[in-house]
């Protein structure tokens, strides 16, 4: 952009270091300079793109209930006002100076917390954050008594401490829009659309509870919006069926059927050689439930809870009673495992494949084009690896892997691992050591069986 007019756009290739790792333009330092010339440079601004919010929840209290403010509460808090103009009003008890009402939402310490609301106060009203007890919290507020925007903290030892102030006209009984952004140790406050002040504390400010605060009188709050970029609140990406069934099967999956297949799916991940100790520990805390998902959704994962659609989007479920093999599926000429007509898995959605996919999300694997983490699944198909994948007696197998799915050799009916990866070392008892660095290409690991390789760079 030159003189506010876009001139051209250019995309740089990633920088690759000596170890083969790639970096985008946002990794490294930025600056200004000139080549073989003198230059005068002025009015330089460096900006960071705004965060991608994973959650933006607004509470307007129009239903007469403070739905999000159900955490710790001190003082008297009530939703009041006319049906079309309700607000949440807070007043300290007669024996107290401060009242607050917190949410039950928790934000991870590395992420941004943004609180936005319309505040009316006859003394001091604002937001509380990093709150642990009634005597341990931080705050940002407006003061009608002193015509100031204030940031401070409260502790049992020091009491109410104001750490930063700036003068602003604060009219009692008048609504003021206040935005508080908390990240790391820093806090910034905007008032009525203008930046008012910022302050840095000596410790993290996001790892406690947060909510609304009033001091020395009554304050009311309206249109309170809570925003964060914490990935824990990302909307789940559903695993989808490729298409709707021609004839709908309304047979519902039972919890008994689901529970019977879960151990096999967990064990395949646990024994894959792909997981760190931390990831393996995650496997013990996963909850599996059955629900009625919308449209073609087969399953979704939110946090450590996996929800399986009751009817497989109308296709019906294939619940494999022998998950240690792929005997219900045949290898097609294009390398897919597909159930033929007459197989129990024919025209059904393979529950094992779906469980493997969703467990992958809990382990922080994202959707990819191929394999078990593909975003769609066809009826009659399987996209997972089984113990048979390692019958070729691999003696050394080093991650990182990305995506796996099982394939069988047509001539020997032995299963081979089809691996989607960035880089991997493979050593087997009957083949030389290969080093493969193929970006996002496919590698079929050849354990002594002659199969053609394509688009693969191999070196000794």
Question: Would you kindly provide a written description of the structure presented here, covering whatever features stand out?
Answer:
This protein is mainly beta. The protein has three helices and 34 strands. The strands form eight sheets. Strands 3, 5, 6, 8, 13, 14, 15 and 17 form an eight-stranded antiparallel β-sheet that branches. Strands 4-7-16-9-10-11-12 form a seven-stranded antiparallel β-sheet, with no helix packed on it. α1 packs across α3. The C terminus is likely disordered.
Concise structural overview:
With 460 residues, the protein is mainly beta.
Question: What distinguishing features does this structure have?
Answer:
460 residues, mainly beta, eight-stranded antiparallel beta sheet, seven-stranded antiparallel beta sheet, 7% helix
Number of strands: 34
Give the CA-CA distance, first to last residue: 47 Å
In percent terms, what proportion of residues is strand? 35-45%
The 3D shape can be described as: globular
Give the radius of gyration.
29 Å
Give a short account of the largest sheet.
8 strands, antiparallel
Uncertain spans, ≥5 residues at pLDDT below 50? Answer: 385-460
Estimate the mean pLDDT confidence.
Answer: 80
- Quickly give the structural class: mainly beta
Number of helices: 3
Helical content class: under 10%
